[in-house]
Amino acid sequence: MNEPSHPEDRLLSVAEREMVDQTRTPGVATLSKDQLQALGKRLRNARDRARRIGRQQSREISGKGKPRGATPARDNTGTGAKAQALVDALQRVTAALRKLNAPTQAEVMRKAVERKRTATTTQHPASGRSANKGMAPKVSGRPTVKSDPREIGRVSQAVKVAQRKRDR
Question: Is residue 163 situated within a structural domain?
Answer without folding.
Answer: no
